[in-house]
């Protein structure tokens, strides 16, 4: 049953959309959620044993975006012609109810306090000249203390499993010594360490670092969240990333929020509804609603509402803003405008240690969010003064479950044969005895890294594709090389028979053929200055006050941590301010 | 013997009507039923590849993934059969990729830009490689000695050889990728015959439950693999 | 024929207790009360087709001789019951006689409704006339060929087996809470329609708890066996507390049970909407009803878990299949996950003599109905594609005798084969139980395989 005149429209049925829809319906609003992909339920997508099929899952991308219909174009530098991203590889956007939130891994972090105020912190410690020319380093406009209650709420909804360090200023456990204090412990205790993580923990300690359990939205025990929905205990099946969890352990919008939403008569979801644009009034200061394409009938439908939430994923949000004329598009040549500016990603490399023949790492055993990490070289936790770069990386073992087809790509590691003679020996030895250690680092924003509309290619619906101009910059390569060097003592402490440190090389361009992460960010960032942000600190458009844009598009730079925890906290933060302030008096929440 | 008909139950059929793109769609089941019905001991007859292409595939896949003392090779594992079946899926028809024009060349790091679906890439690539083989050694690829076959594949991988409009490396990577998939995917897709690929790696297959094994530190997981259809090795 | 039914109708009309005058029927409070009574009677689950408009009928009910469809009971004057007077309405519900005098198929549980109170029926009428949106939807014609389609035998059945409509009389000596519970269970709740075994004429064998057969577990209906609701510790609710029963009806899940089959609809569309007082009244009645001879005693056997811990997953033994397919959720010790994956150790569903339910769940899977208090529609996959009939038989036999479970008898591959080849809403001919020997021209309903349970909404319809 579809609601004809909703109070609010939510575009996208992922985490951000589900959180906003839940909050708005609690506030008494009627909400229509529009999702361009299909319905997805655990009963169907997670039906065991059919669902534990590596080929159909992570390789043929069953639950991911259907690239045939729409994609993006990519180039490394502004003087190049961008070409279509025709095959899923480097980043893997989701589609359908739950979005990427259905098939993500589950690593669930709070931002480091300084991540949110990175510019101020860098300037304070190292001076403004420390920031390289062309880097758009910015603060979020919101502090960790302001977001803390919403991080807490999100963790309780997700059922996040972890070990806290400080609660209300008191040390309560051997959690991450670099993490800021929390108002409450994790809702669930940390997941057990798999063997690789266990070895890493010991070796990291021996190397003088401070290991802690990765905070994971994979339930470590049976759990009922504040919405009454249930999660089962994770059994480390190893079919986490890219799959729908049949145990109901991996948090997803489908498991954690939508069951409580679906029963509400004020909530209605339409699938197969591809939003073409947000419609604005003549002044372009107010949205009247959206126009979407009903994919079943191929007819355009206009739906009006007083409040529009864009929560379609980072780059889809930016795309919609550009197509709808919300905010001034970024003009690279003039260095003016904000929509498309500060496009960021993740600087990640993998290192590998080979253990003895007696040590079987059983890499197929894993959980998406589980593992052990160190933050000694993340964010502002170390002295950057002599190092000459901004940013940092957590270092971790995050064994989500390595399966054979993926392992066949790794083979025996760098330099080992990729096929033919000697290949299988290296492959088997690596699969049985190796440990993978990631440096999962920050990625700064630059003047010449941005998003805009492609002049040539259109999608199946006649809409110009979004164009990404992106490559790796020396600052981030330098950061990566420094941090990965710090893995070496861990390798030695592991007693590895052989190891290789995976470092980025200066000058290597961004390669769309190899998986990085899907932690794209920026493009419509939040901030306190409309000249450098598209959204104010409540993720409200500076220009169109009844449009809120929720997602990692709000991040002015990519942090070392995974983004979902902060996206969820920002979603709850925004919803809180819509409920307590905006709805009483619709209009700009920040006056300049 | 598994049940011979695979009509989805009403409940799942109704869900299919709701538009999910999951494996419950009937065509997926048909593929499964075909795979189960085909007996590994009777010779497979390719549905897509011609006889000459089939000979090429059998030779090339075996060179990429040879039988050796580590374990079975591509022919043992029915990898060519897997690839042939894949050509009749949405993947093989290129329906999973963005295949709208225009098509322009670009640097390799910006990814695949050819207008060819996998099935077309194979058709073109195999013919061109055979031409190249005849040109270099006077015979079709399948008739060459193993060392010559390896040399040709190495040349393709190295990027110096162009197969008409198709960079040799692009074709080689397609072949290599599908060969690995055929060795290691669940046997319902036609490859990994008798779970030989999984046995070699010590991968438990569609087991997906390690609750009792998380904190067993050091020893190998002791149980053999199980496939989605319940086959064990 | 017509004279006969008219005479019958007249007789029964005289026998019916007079109902209060039809005035004040659009009072909003009365309509709201009627909406609640409709929940206790679960009218909506049968009288709404899959994805259909509420109460507009059209739900398929399979029988061995064809299909019937539920009727439109919205107040539409042409296609619904808009022209029914309060008397017409009362006669249909309590006596099973339509406005035109024909007898209803006893898929409509009028033998239970016979004892619904005047005030409940009046409120129900007010609701259906003034609280339900009229829907113009003609009734789907009954899909039964002649001669099976003749209706007059239904009237014969009614005369022979249906109780005389009259006021509900609680069991003497019962406290007030149990009396309320007994009313809800016996009259609007019509629990006996599924949970009481049926006799040769397919009538419920008994209608009161003084008879040990009452609510003692039904014959297979749509290949589900509605378990015993008596206090038997092995096959009934003997180990359940009153709180367990109330929670089960409210959410469909407790620490040691998960609702499945047709009962999923009952929880989703009816009992989850009842007040806590009424749920506890039902629970109290069931737990204080007269005892029945115990069918045994359950003791947990820890050796099963030990065996399974060192059993390799395989497809060639019950234990191996259990480890490969079931232990992931139900655990080696059979304890499941509280309120999500029900325990198998000591579970009455596994220990009924007739294994239809557990086979049905293994072959077709199941989904917990989402409720307001527990919205997760937790699902179990069906195994008909992953397991052969032999393997299903092996693993079902295994769990029926593991952890101290003491089910009688074994399951044969032939049973599973027959079972797996039908969809969940069709019936099979029976499970190694003797046929009752009825011949071709039976007064309807008759014989094994008659179903009173329509296709289930659970898993197919979204949560309300």
From TrEMBL, chain A:
InterPro entries: FAD-bd, FAD/NAD-bd_sf, GMC_OxRdtase_N, GMC_OxRtase_C. Residues 458-571 form the Glucose-methanol-choline oxidoreductase C-terminal domain. Residues 7-43 form the FAD-binding domain. Residues 229-345 form the Glucose-methanol-choline oxidoreductase N-terminal domain. GO terms for molecular function: FAD binding; oxidoreductase activity, acting on CH-OH group of donors. Keywords: FAD, Flavoprotein, Oxidoreductase. The keyword Ribosomal protein does not apply. Gene3D superfamilies: FAD/NAD(P)-binding domain (3.50.50.60). It holds the Pfam family FAD_binding_3. Belongs to the GMC oxidoreductase family. This is Gluconate 2-dehydrogenase alpha chain. The lineage of its organism: Bacteria, Pseudomonadati, Pseudomonadota, Alphaproteobacteria, Acetobacterales.
UniProtKB/TrEMBL annotation, chain B:
Pfam families: Gluconate_2-dh3. InterPro entries: Gluconate_2DH_su3, TAT_signal. This is Membrane-bound D-gluconate 2-dehydrogenase small subunit. It comes from Tanticharoenia sakaeratensis NBRC 103193.
From TrEMBL, chain C:
Its cofactor is heme c. Heme c 1 binds at residues 43, 46-47. Keywords: Cell membrane, Heme, Iron, Membrane, Metal-binding, Repeat, Signal. Pfam families: Cytochrom_C. Residues 1-22 form the signal peptide. SUPFAM superfamilies: Cytochrome c. One of its GO terms (molecular function) is heme binding. It is found in: Cell membrane. Heme c 2 binds at residues 191, 194-195. Binds 3 heme c groups covalently per subunit. Residues 29-132, 176-290, 313-403 form the Cytochrome c domain. Heme c 3 binds at residues 326, 329-330. GO terms for cellular component: plasma membrane. PANTHER family: ALCOHOL DEHYDROGENASE CYTOCHROME C SUBUNIT (PTHR35008:SF8), BLL4482 PROTEIN-RELATED (PTHR35008). This is Gluconate 2-dehydrogenase.
């Amino acid at each position: 049953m579809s609601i004809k005149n909703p109070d609010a429209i939510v575009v996208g049925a992922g985490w951000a959309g589900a959180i906003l829809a839940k909050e708005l319906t609690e506030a008494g609003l009627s909400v229509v959620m529009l999702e361009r992909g299909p319905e997805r339920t655990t009963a169907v997508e997670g039906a065991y044993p059919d669902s534990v099929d590596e080929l159909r899952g992570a390789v043929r991308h069953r639950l991911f975006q259907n690239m045939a219909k729409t994609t993006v174009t990519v180039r490394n530098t502004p003087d190049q012609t961008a070409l279509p991203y025709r095959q899923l590889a480097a980043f893997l956007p989701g589609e359908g109810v739950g979005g990427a939130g259905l098939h993500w891994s589950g690593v669930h972090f709070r931002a480091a306090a300084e991540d949110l105020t990175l510019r101020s912190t860098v300037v304070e410690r190292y001076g403004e000249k420390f920031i390289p020319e062309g880097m758009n380093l910015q603060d979020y406009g919101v502090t960790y203390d302001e977001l803390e209650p919403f991080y807490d709420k999100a963790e309780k909804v997700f059922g996040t499993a972890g070990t806290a360090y400080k609660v209300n200023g008191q040390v309560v456990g051997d959690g991450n010594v670099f993490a800021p204090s929390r108002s409450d412990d994790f809702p669930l205790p940390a997941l057990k360490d798999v063997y690789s993580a266990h070895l890493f923990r010991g070796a990291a300690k021996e190397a003088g670092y401070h290991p802690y359990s990765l905070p994971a939205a994979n339930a470590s025990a049976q759990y009922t969240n504040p919405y009454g929905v249930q999660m089962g205990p994770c059994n480390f099946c190893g079919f986490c990333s890219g799959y729908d969890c049949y145990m109901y352990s991996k948090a997803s919008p489908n498991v954690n929020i939508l069951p409580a939403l679906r029963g509400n008569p004020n909530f209605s979801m339409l699938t197969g509804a591809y939003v073409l644009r947000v419609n604005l009034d003549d002044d372009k200061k107010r949205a009247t609603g959206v126009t979407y394409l009903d994919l079943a009938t191929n007819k355009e439908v206009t739906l009006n509402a007083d409040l529009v939430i864009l929560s379609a994923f980072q780059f889809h949000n930016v795309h919609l803003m550009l197509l709808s004329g919300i905010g001034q598009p970024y003009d690279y040549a003039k260095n003016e405008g904000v929509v498309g500016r500060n496009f960021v990603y993740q600087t990640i490399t993998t290192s590998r240690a080979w253990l003895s023949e007696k040590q079987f790492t059983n890499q197929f055993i894993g959980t998406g969010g589980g593992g052990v990490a160190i933050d000694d070289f993340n964010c502002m936790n170390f002295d950057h003064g002599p190092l000459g770069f901004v940013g940092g990386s957590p270092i971790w073992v995050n064994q989500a479950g390595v399966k054979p087809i993926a392992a066949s790509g790794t083979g025996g590691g760098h330099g080992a044969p990729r096929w033919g003679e000697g290949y299988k020996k290296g492959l088997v030895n690596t699969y049985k005895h190796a440990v993978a250690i990631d440096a999962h680092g920050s990625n700064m924003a630059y003047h010449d890294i941005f998003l805009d509309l492609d002049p040539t290619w259109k999608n199946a619906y006649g809409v110009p594709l979004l164009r990404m101009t992106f490559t790796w910059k020396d600052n981030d390569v330098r950061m990566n090389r420094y941090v990965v060097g710090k893995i070496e003592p861990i390798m030695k402490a592991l007693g590895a028979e052989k190891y290789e440190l995976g470092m980025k090389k200066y000058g290597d361009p961004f390669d769309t053929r190899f998986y990085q992460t899907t932690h794209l960010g920026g493009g419509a960032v939040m901030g306190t200055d409309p000249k450098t942000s598209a959204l104010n600190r409540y993720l409200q458009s500076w220009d169109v006050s009844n449009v809120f844009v929720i997602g990692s598009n709000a991040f002015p730079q990519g942090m070392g941590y995974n983004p979902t925890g902060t996206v969820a906290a920002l979603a709850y933060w925004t919803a809180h301010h819509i409920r307590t302030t905006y709805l009483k008096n619709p209009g700009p929440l920040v006056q300049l | 013997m598994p049940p011979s008909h695979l009509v989805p139950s009403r409940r799942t059929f109704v869900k299919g009507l709701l538009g999910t793109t999951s494996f419950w769609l009937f065509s997926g089941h048909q593929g499964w039923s075909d795979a189960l019905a085909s007996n590994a001991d009777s010779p497979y007859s390719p549905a897509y590849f011609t006889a000459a292409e089939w000979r090429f595939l059998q030779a090339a896949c075996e060179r990429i993934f040879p039988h050796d003392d580590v374990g079975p090779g591509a022919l043992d594992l029915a990898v060519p059969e897997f690839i042939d079946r894949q050509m009749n899926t949405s993947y093989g028809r290129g329906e999973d990729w963005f295949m709208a024009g225009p098509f322009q060349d670009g640097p390799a790091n910006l990814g695949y830009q050819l207008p060819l679906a996998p099935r077309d890439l194979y058709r073109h690539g195999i013919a061109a490689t055979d031409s190249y083989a005849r040109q270099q050694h006077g015979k079709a690829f399948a008739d060459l000695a193993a060392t010559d076959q390896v040399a040709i594949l190495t040349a393709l991988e190295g990027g110096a050889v162009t197969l008409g409009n198709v960079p040799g490396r692009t074709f080689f990577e397609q072949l290599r990728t599908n060969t690995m998939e055929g060795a290691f995917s669940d046997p319902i897709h036609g490859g990994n015959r008798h779970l030989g690929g999984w046995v070699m790696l010590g991968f438990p297959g569609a087991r997906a439950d390690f609750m009792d094994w998380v904190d067993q530190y050091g020893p190998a997981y002791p149980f053999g693999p199980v496939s989605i259809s319940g086959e064990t090795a | 024929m017509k004279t006969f039914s008219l005479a019958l109708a007249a007789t029964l009309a005289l026998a019916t207790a007079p109902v209060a005058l039809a005035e004040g029927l659009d009072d909003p409070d009365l309509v709201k009360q009627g909406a609640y009574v409709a929940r206790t009677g679960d009218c909506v689950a049968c009288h709404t087709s899959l994805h259909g408009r509420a109460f507009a009928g059209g739900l398929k009910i399979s029988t061995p001789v064809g299909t019937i469809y539920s009727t439109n009971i919205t107040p539409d004057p042409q296609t619904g019951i808009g022209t029914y007077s309060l008397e017409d309405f009362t006669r249909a519900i309590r006596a099973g006689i339509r406005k035109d005098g024909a007898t209803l198929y006893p898929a409509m549980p009028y033998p239970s409704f016979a004892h619904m109170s005047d005030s409940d029926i009046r409120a129900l009428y007010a609701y259906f006339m003034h609280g339900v949106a009229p829907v113009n939807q003609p009734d789907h014609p009954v899909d039964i060929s002649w001669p099976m389609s003749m209706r007059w035998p239904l009237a014969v059945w009614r005369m022979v087996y249906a109780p005389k409509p009259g006021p509900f009389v609680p069991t003497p000596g019962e406290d007030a809470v149990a009396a309320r519970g007994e009313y809800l269970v016996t009259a609007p709740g019509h629990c006996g329609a599924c949970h009481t075994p049926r006799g040769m004429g397919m009538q419920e064998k008994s209608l009161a708890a003084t008879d040990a057969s009452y609510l003692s577990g039904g014959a297979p209906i749509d290949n589900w066996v509605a378990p015993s609701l008596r206090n038997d510790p092995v096959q009934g609710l003997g180990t359940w507390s009153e709180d367990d029963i109330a929670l089960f009806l409210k959410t469909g899940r407790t620490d040691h049970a998960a609702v499945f089959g047709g009962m999923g609809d009952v929880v989703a569309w009816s009992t989850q909407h009842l007040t806590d007082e009424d749920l506890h009244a039902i629970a109290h009645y069931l737990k204080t009803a007269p005892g029945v001879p115990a069918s045994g005693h359950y003791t947990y056997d820890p050796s099963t878990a030990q065996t399974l811990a060192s059993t390799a997953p395989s497809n060639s033994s019950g234990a191996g299949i259990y480890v490969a397919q079931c232990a992931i959720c139900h655990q080696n010790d059979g304890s499941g996950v509280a309120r999500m994956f029900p325990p198998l150790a000591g579970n009455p569903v596994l220990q009924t003599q007739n294994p239809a339910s557990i086979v049905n769940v293994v072959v077709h899977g199941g989904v917990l109905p989402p409720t307001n208090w527990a919205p997760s529609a937790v699902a179990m996959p069906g195994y008909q594609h992953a397991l052969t009939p032999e393997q299903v038989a092996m693993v079902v036999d295994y769990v029926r005798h593991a952890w101290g479970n003491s089910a009688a008898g074994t399951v044969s591959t032939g049973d599973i084969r027959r079972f797996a080849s039908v969809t969940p809403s069709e019936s099979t001919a029976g499970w190694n139980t003797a046929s009752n020997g009825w011949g071709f021209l039976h007064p309807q309903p008759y014989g094994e395989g008659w179903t009173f349970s329509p296709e289930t909404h659970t898993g197919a319809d979204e949560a309300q």
